[in-house]
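Before drawing any conclusions, I looked closely at one protein's amino acid sequence and its C-alpha cells, quoted below without any editing.
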Amino acid sequence: MGSRLNASNRNLFFGHMISRINTIGCFACVSLLTLSMVVEARQLYRYRNADGVVVVGYQVPVEYVSKGYEVLNDEGMVIKVIPRALTEEERNAQDAQQQLVDAANAEQERLREWDETLMLRYSTVADIEAARDRALGDLKIRLSILKGNRRSLKQRVENYQSEAADMERSGRKVDVERLRAIETLQSDIAATDRAIVDRQGDVDDMAASYQLDIERFEMLLEVVEMRRTLRIKRSKPNS
C-alpha cells in the first residue's frame, strides 16, 4: 500500500511540475511578445505640421508623409531620414540633370572606344592616310561608274529625241513606244543623279571622318609623348 501511495504522490508531483513549466513557458512567450511591442512602440517620428511646428509622435499623419520626416530610436536619436517628395518641377529638373549626366558618360565612353580603336589599328598618321585613300578609292570608283551610266543614259535619250524630231519634221507621228522609252530613260537618269549625290555625300563624309581620326590620333600621340617625357624626368636623379 505504501509503495502505491508513493507512486501516486510522485505522479502528482511530476504533473504539478510539468504544469508549472508550461505556465512559465507561456509567461515567457507573452513577456517576450510584450517586450517586442514595447521596443517597437518606442520608435518615434519627428515631422513639421501645417504650422511649421516640430512634432514628435508614434506615427506621422498621412497628410504630412509627403513632406518628409525623421525616424527616432528610443533614445531620441535619428536612425533614418525620409526626404520630402519632389515637386513635378523638381522631378523634371532632376530628370534633365540625369540626362546630362548620361549623355556625358556616353560621350566619355565613345571617346574611350575611339581612342582604343585608333591606337590598336594605327601606328602612324601615314597608316590612317593610307586607309583613307583605299576607302575613298573604292567609293570614287563607284561614283565614276554611276557618272558613266548617266552619260550613257543621256546619250540614249538624245538619240531617241533626235529620231523623234526627224519623224516630226518628215510629217510622221512619233510612235508611243519611242516616247515611253524616252520617259523611262529620263526616270533612270533622275534616279542615277540621286545615287550620284548620295555617293558624293559618302565620299565627303568618309573624308571628314578620316580627318577627325587623324586629328584625334595626333592628339593621342602628343599625350603619349608628354607622358613619356614626364616619366623620363621623374626617373632622373635630382641634380
Observations:
- The two ends are 114 Å apart (CA to CA).
